[in-house]
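Reviewer has doubts. Consider these tokens.
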Amino acid sequence: MIKKSVTELQFVNSRSPLPTVEVDSQSMEDAGFSITRTVLEVLSRLAAEDASLRATLYLFGTVSVSFREPCWSEFLLVAGPEKVLSAVGASFERLPGVRSRFSDYVQSSQAARTFHVEDGRVWEKEDGSTWYSHSQQEAAVSEIVADEDEVEQEDFEEEEDWDAEDPEEQGADAVVVSSKKAARYRAARSDAKVSSIRLRIEEVFGLPAGSVALCGPDGRPLRGNAFIKTLRKRWED
């Protein structure tokens, strides 16, 4: 993994509204696909084909009626060559059961800068000041890089130690992967979506798609478009 500060990357910015690809997040979840993985795959291919390519993608989520009924949509704002917008849109159109469309123009100030292509690499945001990129070989193998005692994922943060012999002392909202007496884990980011964390858990533990549910104190599963901070708040209340 390579890391750079925000000052080392040349992000593509625009004062004008940007074209978007709109995706019905519930349809993605129901079909068993990941928005992040889909975007990373297409951007990795474009970066490999053209090392001079530079583009920045922003993400904005809101309730939409573009698909003839209210749903939670994720808008991918594309700042860069038109071929990037076309490739991203086509990648979602090819997914069976997923509702997507080229949609309205949106100001980047309303969205979060999430992906960036530069120097033949795809960069992802780690925090407010740092971005990271996996090598092409790492990305081809998996989005999750794991060894005997550690798991790293972009939806997890604040790495801590966990003693396998004293699990009751640990927080209930962490995903834990243990191998020997101790393991290391990262707590789910507050701004991560419930659907994303569910998929991560299923991938890490080799569980069937749809078998994991993140529930509130009442035992009812949260919707996939809810944030992890919502899950935590319900349990704290």
In short: The CA atoms of residues 34 and 196 lie 7 Å apart. The domain at 144-236 is CATH 3.10.20 (Ubiquitin-like (UB roll)). The chain has six helices and twelve strands.
